[in-house]
Amino acid sequence: MEAADVASSAPRRSAGRRLADLLHGRPRLQVSALLAGPVGWLVIGYLGSLAVLLAASFWTLGELSGEVEQTFTLDNYEQIITEPVYRSIAGRTVLIAALVTLTDVLLALPLAFYMAKVAGPRAKGMLVVAVLVPLWSAYLVKVYAWRTILSQEGALNWALAPFGLDGPGYGNVAVWIVMSYIWLPYMVIPIYAGLERLPDSLLSASEDLGAHPGLTFRRVILPLVFPAIVAGSIFTFSLTLGDFIAPQLVSSTQFIGTVVYANITNNLPLAAAFATVPIMIMVVYLLLARRLGAFEHV
Amino acid sequence: MRLSRRSKLLLRVGSSLTLAFIYVPLAIIVVYAFNPSRTLTWPPSGLTLDWFGKALDNPGARDAFLTSAQVGLVATAVALLLGTLAALAVSRYRFFGRETISFLVILPIALPGIVTGVALNTTFTQVLGVDLSLFTIVVGHATFCIVVVYNNVIARLRRLSTSFEEAAADLGAGPWQTFRMVTLPNMRGALVAGALLAFGLSFDEIIVTTFTAGAGDQTLPIWIFTNFSRPNQLPIVNVVAVLVILISVIPVYLAYQLTRDEGTTGPATTAA
Amino acid sequence: MRADPRSARWAWLIVAGLSAFLAAFAVGCGSDDSGDGGDSGAPTELGAAEGEVNLVAWAGYVEDGSTDPKVDWVTDFEKETGCQVNVKIGNTSDEMVQLMRTGQYDAVSASGDATLRLIDGGDVAPVNTDLIPNYADVFDSLKDQPFNTVDGTNYGVPHGRGANLLMWNPDEVSGKPDSWDVVFDKSSENSGSVTAYDNPIYIADAALYLMTHEPDLGITNPYELDQEQFDAAIALLKEQRQNIGEYWSDYTKQISAFANGDSTVGTTWQVIANLLEADGVKVETTLPVEGSTGWSDTWMISSEAKNPNCAYMWMNHIISPEANAQVAEWFGEAPANEKSCELTADANHCDIYHAADEDYFDQVFYWTTPVADCGDDRGDVCKTYDEWVQGWTEVKG
User: Fold this and answer.
1) Structure pTM?
2) Which of A69, A104, B271, C118 has the fewest CB atoms within 10 Å, i.e. is most exposed?
3) Does B59 contact chain A (CB < 8 Å)?
């Protein structure tokens, strides 16, 4: 009876089954089907818009009207390369991005290590939540809070006054502090995840072979967690590189982001040309990061 | 690993300093939420609960919150779909350009927000002639949320042996059945974690949103941005921020529990 | 599960080709102006109110009671016309131009350095002033001005005008400054707490200063600067830069800066001083002896306005005697409507702000878009606005 049932139900195949049959044994079709959506979205949608931006960087403004004209010119690139102010702005931004990254690594390591290797399970859970919750507090509110903290009559000066010291006020130092603060969780999490994956047995083995903790850290832990550090640095570096809101609120200095933002209305080609600078920097950074194995840890 | 007492102490001190650094400004935000004055001077002149009432009453804040939630849900759904598809393809197949996929997926989040925002804006308004609206915001958000889902799912898939799926196929299950009954349940934790992180990303995003939002569209970050320019609304913004922080503890805790139980190492991706 | 690399490669090539094609297509036909000038000409009669109106305005121009419950000229407009008012504050003229270019707003309160850009770009439509009854009562000296009328066609209705002022904290700044030198040549006396408006148009303030203090440069109009005059203004601003604590473009930033002591002297708008005094912060203001830059704002209607009838109704309302008097007093400027002078709470308001004093406003140089045509016998050698923008980038460094 069962065989008959099976036989009689064989011809009625659902659409799903037919599709499955079509795909069966044709892995390339399967891959294409899977990737059509994401790749289409990213390549056509995202890369396409980047291509438009790139194209805009070769355009120019009409002499009198100030409107965008689509004639090809290298003037914008010439300007950002030859005029010193753009170089100094780019240099300053990259420097601060690097400083922020370094600061966040130094701040994150002890915490991440404690969370991964020393804390008990309950404490670990609480600490992870404690590190992630600030991500959900609005970025703008955090920057504004820092603006008031760093102001002349703000909390920092108030706290330093008994020691006769003065806070840094607004400026590059302020931007460095604020950025380090805001992106810190993005550095803690990958390092924590990387350290979690580090088998305790490796550390025990190192110990058994006679290394004291400092040596173990330098020779065993650090090399293994380095890709995770690089993964975290992708975010701290790139987020600092393009930010234009925080610099405007806690400083008067110009960064790549603020210049691009300021020029969008009046000089879209110039803004687009200057925007290619962080793109190129990040592409190089990403290629390096991939070489170092960071993509496994993002 | 046995650490000397001194090392443990140093670690504790270092961690506490970092945690203090993270939480002191948040504490200041909380204090300001009770501040009666409109300008934010320190120390604050007093304490009041007025702003809490005003914030809960404020229609602008409520609408912005709902809009942000809507946008977040749709963007997360799109990111879930696209991210999972890409992760399945990369983890289960070998093909030309496979390594490039992870590069491509991370690009929207690795490139500075202003670049993504300006590029999308120019494309929408100049090239496609599309009005900016909630749809365009969702497109922007989904694009950079894909990587969050992708990374979570692919980490999980790499740990999931294919033998289960092969066994299911041997038993006569079609690919969709296999996916539904074998792969998906095992990925569930990664999916939820990815979804929660993607939602969080979208909820707090301001830079790309500024460039892809239409005139009347107010997500919560845009509402905050606008209201920083209105002296009387400033304290309400602080209250809203505090409320959001409190509410957010729940999903964060959930995400952590889910990924932990599945054996993956915590929320093994970053939100950006 | 292995894929055949050859065929997958094909798939990739197809995708790559498709996207390249799309990008080329986009570039090739892209960037047609988002607005082709809209409808030609202004409407001849008003229809029914659409139910809402989306405005771009300076802070303080469209108050609905949320900043101060007593300051409200929007709620009764909404009740009378049924047009719900949504306002987006523009911090600078640049922002306003950008917002109007999106075509998603109905009307804008544009200063002189935005009006011509909007007109040239086709972002605003001509205005039929016959549809705005209150226009008849506007000061004649504000009608048909070069910044709001092109070739005899009106592009907006005047809102009001005023001058940028010098503001200082009397507890920190000694003496009673009466000249802009306290922020230029003498800015080192308050180094680290001088403030200035963060926008390229501020170059005109430097040029204005040089008009008096370096007459050899021959500057007659601070918006028409040839290379030599421009370079001198930039040099002056670079010197000032060293003593600047913070630039401001967002008025709440300046309020918090003065309240917190981060800024003690610099250029401002009267409304900011009013708000600071209301919060108990001590400040004083003056119009310095060299004169000042200022603005004469015009309400313009978008060429892509979705709610044109409500927009017209709004324009009529904001220049009505009562509303214009209220906004002029709140913001601290001279009203555009002659009849407003009798309605201001402070009877001397119009005298203080020189509403009818044309000689005074000859000394105030309204924000104007710098163009190449110098307007005199120098020809077309003057610096254009995008050159001002680059200059400003250089100043800030």
Assistant:
1) 0.82
2) A69
3) no
Contact A132/B at CB under 8 A: yes
Residue to mutate among B57, B58, B63, B95, with most C CBs inside 10 A, is B95
The CA distance from B213 to the nearest CA of chain A, in Å, is 16
The rounded distance, in Å, linking the Cα atoms of B226 and C63 is 15
Q: Are residue A136 and residue A259 in the same domain, yes or no?
A: yes
ipTM of predicted assembly, 2 dp: 0.82
Range of the domain at A27: 14-56
Work out the average pLDDT over B68-97.
90
Q: Is A40 on the interface with B (CB under 8 A)?
A: no
Return the CATH fold of B59-261.
Answer: MetI-like fold (1.10.3720)
Return residues 242-271 of B near A (CB < 8 Å).
244-245, 248-249, 252-253, 255-257, 260, 265-271
**Neighbors of chain A by Cβ distance (3+ pairs < 8 Å):** B, C
CATH number of the structural domain C52-161+295-356: 3.40.190.10
Cis upstream peptide for B43 (omega within 30°): yes
N residues, chain A: 298
Name the fold adopted by C165-268+370-396: D-Maltodextrin-Binding Protein; domain 2 (3.40.190)
Instruction: Give contacts of C262 with chain A, Cβ < 8 Å.
Output: 151-152, 169-170
- Interface A–B counts its CB contacts (< 8 A) at 300
Please give the mean pLDDT across all residues of chain C.
86
Q: Do A151 and C260 touch (CB under 8 A)?
A: yes
Least Cα separation, residue A227 to chain B (angstroms): 13
Specify the pLDDT at position B270: 38
Strand-by-strand arrangement of the C194-197 sheet: C244-248, C194-197, C265-268, C165-168, C284-286
Residue ranges of domains in chain B = 59-261
Contact assessment for residue A276 and residue A79, using Cβ atoms and an 8 Å cutoff: no
| Domain assignment present for A195 | yes
Residue stretches of chain A with pLDDT short of 70: 1-12, 63-67, 298
Report how far apart, in Å, the C-alpha atoms of A152 and of each of B38, C87, C203, C234 are.
17, 33, 28, 29
